[in-house]
Amino acid sequence: MVLFGLIIVFQIIYFILTSFDFASERKKSNEQNEWLAHQDEINALKEKTTTKDTIYPFNPNFITDYKGYILGLSTSQLDKLHAYRASGRFINSVSDFKQITGVHDTLLLKLEPYFKFGNKPLYYNNNTSSVKEYSRSRFASDSKAVKVIDINEAIEEDLIKVYGIGPYYAKEILKRRSVLGGFVSMDQMDDFSTLSAEAKSELKKYFSVSKIPEIEKINVNTASLLQLSRFPYFNKDIARSVITQRSMDGKIRKIDDLLEIQNFPVDKVKIIALYLEF
Description:
The protein is mostly helical. Helices cover 48% and strands 6% of the residues. The radius of gyration is 34 Å and the shape is elongated. Residues 119-138 and 140-144 have low confidence and may be disordered.
């Protein structure tokens, strides 16, 4: 009788435990079914939010290696393009781009809507293989002499008229002018390392420094480390060296004293001197 009673007790316990497990599994199953019911909606939202490659309008005559990589050009295609440009010639059409680079039609079809060429075509002298440019800049709308503008009075609309200068570079030039207080030489256009040689040449052609602007000069003997570091032609290392040198010598008397500083931009010393006082 005792054994019989134990069997009944164990059966009851087993029944209770299995009932809990079944209820738990059923709850889990219901949650999974509810999740799966929303899966299609989740997938649809993922497709909508998936980031797609964005291609911005570009001039094929001024493609960097990084830009070419983003556009999907191979190394050999970029080499062909750079070699063609190094010869002094320009690409004027999509067909020119295809012929020079050998790009596949599939990629060309993708890029075609984003090509942006100069406002006026470039013509070539077949006898000399040199470039002849007719009205290359929007400044040169006729054969009359072009009025040269003072770079320190130019506005963004003036700058973007130059071949090779867009809104981005126009803003960068104006920003640099604001930081410096004004440009003292058109050679300062060479400071924009990512700007093409053609664009720099065009800037120097249509703009000039007619007079040296009134600049709030930096006194190298009293300026703080922060002030010296913010000067575009210095960095923190040069700024520290200037302070160290004036501490050791008592005073920096002339620009030549700064030439002793390691990594000082000697090639720009004449320009730098116009922004400093001693």
